[in-house]
């Protein structure tokens, strides 16, 4: 029994000794210095400047489509404006849009006005051209003064945009008669002097010649063609007249530069509205009386001739 115990003790001690040796061997392996590979060249490191910003990679640029060139072909935009009434600020606006003598139908034309020389504009109507390229509308300004009236078409894929601008001036007298002048030229200072019966204004244009349309109420002159006189810079100017409702439309020409224009209404052409009906009545009555007197005289002469003939017949042998 004792031998067995001694044998077991020897075995345990042997195993413990072997485990201790293994532990020391593992510790020796882990404590060995690691080996390093020596670099023959050191990498170059560039120093970062203090005032140099960090540059981020540029994003990929988005392709920009090439813009379509604007059409160069110009349409023709005719535009006119004239007074529609002798006693109100009402104007008839008309025009024609065409290209190469061909009408442009169903086109949107903006009509706008400016009361401050073009610094600001007010769109007051949008008109569509008819089959023949024409358009018509009515413009009623709030007060007398000088205005710019512009017709604008935005163009299309083949024709460029187009503007046409007119200068319009209007005034009135104490009786409510309205005068106006319209032109491509700048018109300023329109006024009417009732004492001298003179309408005056100033034109300024860079064009060689520009037509001017002037509206005169028929209540002030009965025959514009023979009884009106137009002077430009003091010289008599030729003009054309046209009758329209209760207005005379007078057309003359303004030359290049700045010019003073006057329209003289002769005193003999003034027709007071109160006396005119009575004068007509008196003339008609005078004609009736004259016709009656002539008829009576003729009848009396016929009766006298018949009586004389009867007496002579009775006295024959």
What's the structural blueprint in terms of helices and strands?
Layout lengths: L1 H29 L45 E8 L7 E9 L2 E2 L4 E7 L7 E7 L5 E6 L5 E9 L8 E11 L5 E6 L2 E8 L4 E20 L6 H4 E5 L2 E3 L2 E5 L2 E19 L9 H40 L3
Antiparallel strand pairs: 1-2, 2-3, 2-6, 4-5, 4-7, 7-8, 8-9, 9-11, 10-11, 11-15, 12-13, 12-15, 14-15
What does this structure look like?
With 317 residues, the protein is an alpha+beta fold. It has a domain at 76-269: Macroglobulin (MG2) domain (Immunoglobulin-like), CATH 2.60.40. The protein has helices spanning 2-30, 224-227, 275-314, and strands at residues 76-83, 91-99, 102-103, 108-114, 122-128, 134-139, 145-153, 162-172, 178-183, 186-193, 198-217, 228-232, 235-237, 240-244, 247-265. The longest helix has 40 residues, at 275-314. Mean pLDDT is 81; it is low at 269-275.
- Terminal CA distance: 229 Å
Biggest pleated-sheet summary: 11 strands, antiparallel
Q: In terms of structural class, how would the helical and strand content be classed?
A: alpha+beta
Radius of gyration: 53 Å
Strand content: 35-45%
CATH superfamily of the domain at 76-269: Macroglobulin (MG2) domain
Average residue pLDDT:
81
Return the string of H and E elements.
HEEEEEEEEEEEHEEEEH
User: What form results from the Cα inertia axes?
Assistant: rod-shaped
Question: Low-confidence segments, ≥5 residues, pLDDT <50?
Answer: 269-275
Q: Name the CATH class of the domain at 76-269.
A: Mainly Beta
Number of strands: 15
Helix tally equals 3
